[in-house]
Amino acid sequence: MSTHILILFGATGDLVSRMVVPALFHLFETNRLPDEFKVLGFSRRDLSNEDFKDLVRIAVVDHLEKENEVPPEFLNLFEYQKGDYTKVEDYNHLHKRISIIDEDQNSCSNKLFHLAVPPKYYAEILTNLSSSKLDKTCIVGENWTRILVEKPYGSDLIEAIRIDEMLGKIFKDEQIYRIDHYLAKELLQNIIIFRFANNLLEHVWDNRSVEKIEVKLLENIGIEGRGATYDSLGALLDIGQNHLLQMLALVTMDAPDDLGPEAIRRARSRLLKDVSVLNDEEIVNGTTRGQYLGYLSETGIKKNSMTETYFKIKTTINSRRWQGVPIILEAGKRAPRTEKEIAVTFYPSKMLSSTARSTGLNKNTVYFRLEPNPGIAIRFWSKSPGPTNALEQQVMDFKYEDIASGVRHLEGYSRLILDSIKGDQTLFITGEEAISGWHFIDPVIRAWRENKVPLDIYSSDEESFNLMGYDESDAIVDATTIRGA
Q1: Are 422 and 263 in contact (CB under 8 A)?
Q2: CA–CA distance from 62 to each of 18, 70, 334, 435 (Å)?
Q3: How far apart are CA 285 and CA 281, in angstroms?
Q4: Calpha distance 323→308 (Å, rounded)
């Protein structure tokens, strides 16, 4: 039986401790890891195997708030190899280390490389993987080598294209797993089933009936210690180029030919190519950016930083199905509340009076809610009991907590790691999707850097946030029913 080796580039970094190690521990606890499995950390810090295991133990305790001792069987999965991303000789040493593991296990390992590093290192890592022949398998046709690539996919459109071309020269497409961990969220996976397994709404899921679509990732927290990393990205690159656009694709794409990975990825990619790329005038008139008060005092932030922590972008989709429907993409830190959702709002019924329609209170809306209280809700109106035809709001609300029965959902990095080992690419974006995202945000970033759209300062109170373009009337109503307040 072949050993599976996960090679973590950036093994001592924040992403590995915060996301990858807890995900691996969850897979370990639920007996979902392969029988023969190893994790080999690769980073510049001078650590022994025991030092690295101690970092792993701390990550499990800190991020999973685990009270008991971390099992030694889990810690023994981890080994460490010091290495400089820029030096090919260190990759040769890594190759020898993997060969030793193979000899000990009397096998030829399957290798999964995870680039948990900033995109500025991608080119050098890819070049050195190829030069050291780490990208090759021991036995052609019997073993595999795959690579996990983190977002953001490059730092601008030109670099993204260059990285994609490099990946394509070294690895085949079926070996490349581009991560957008939001695609692994249970709620987002359910959008496809909700839409295409039911005839309830799909026939009115177009510009004849839909008034607007809003995709929001608003958080009431700050940057949570990610100062240097976040400041080099900003909200649009951190959230907009990937998560928001993938959420948009799932809720607006045409029906895939089937539920297989190729068909779903093809449908997402076709949709993203149709998202309107804004010109300078549209960027000035249709985008907002802001920075929360106190951001400059966070650790790791450059003096007088102009990095945005909030943005709102209005665009459209250039397709027959969605032409003319306003698309609103919004994300930010230090919002008045956490609100992560997709809201699809329909035109009001023509049968109701113009007065009723003008209030907006009779608009049907479908919500795909990530936080708080993950689920799907449909807002509709019925007659209030009594002698008049007064309207009364009603909500159909499906909540995951209602069916979970204490079962822990396998999602996020746990699902992504497991799928990359299985060879299932459904929840990973294609190169075309990544490049389409860059085509959309690149002109916006350039215009913002030239200060064509001023950077406003806001605080987390609702009045200040409303000035940034946040509209409380667009938020989910009936807090008790839908927000669980």
Answers
A1: no
A2: 9, 11, 23, 36
A3: 6
A4: 29
Q: What CA–CA distances, in Å, run from 18 to 151, 158, 414?
A: 15, 30, 12
**Residues identified as active-site:** 243
Of the candidates 251, 279, 278, the residue with the CA atom closest to the CA atom of residue 344: 251
Separation of alpha carbons 474 and 230, rounded Å = 28
Tokens for 275, please give them.
Answer: 């998202």
Confidence grade of residue 264 (pLDDT, cut at 50, 70, 90): very high
Q: Give the helix ranges, DSSP H, for 383-461.
A: 400-404, 412-422, 431-449
CA–CA distances in Å: residue 390 to residues 151, 320, 352, 354, 436: 50, 37, 11, 14, 47
What pTM value is reported for the model?
A: 0.88
**What are the distances in angstroms from CA 196 to CA 200, 205, 300, 326, 396?**
9, 11, 45, 23, 19
Instruction: For residue 35, give every residue at least 6 positions away whose Cβ sits within 8 Å of its Cβ, in sequence order, or none.
Output: 1
Structural contact between residues 247 and 241, judged by C-beta atoms closer than 8 angstroms = no
- 367 and 395 Cβ atoms separated by less than 8 Å: no
Q: Kindly report, residue by residue over 98-151, the tens digit of the pLDDT.
A: 998 888 878 889 999 999 998 889 999 999 999 999 999 887 667 899 999 988
Closest CA to 83 of 134, 125, 42: 42
d(Cα 311, Cα 437) in Å, to the nearest integer? 16
Q: What's the one-letter identity of residue 118? A: P
Is residue 236 within 8 Å of residue 308, measured between CB atoms?
yes
What span, in angstroms and rounded, lies between the C-alpha atoms of 137 and 146? 10
Judge contact between 108 and 138, C-beta under 8 A.
yes
Cβ distance 27 to 414 under 8 Å?
Answer: yes
Instruction: Give me the domains of the chain, ranges plus CATH numbers.
Output: 4-150 (3.40.50.720), 183-483 (3.30.360.10)
**First-last CA distance in the chain:** 52
Which is it for strands 110-115 and 455-458: parallel, antiparallel or unpaired?
A: unpaired
How far is CA 110 from its chain centroid? 26
Say which residues have a Cβ less than 8 Å from residue 83's Cβ, sequence separation at least 6.
Answer: 42, 43, 44, 90, 91, 93, 94
What would the pLDDT profile of 174-213 be if each residue is shown by its tens digit? 999 999 988 888 889 899 999 998 888 888 999 999 999 9
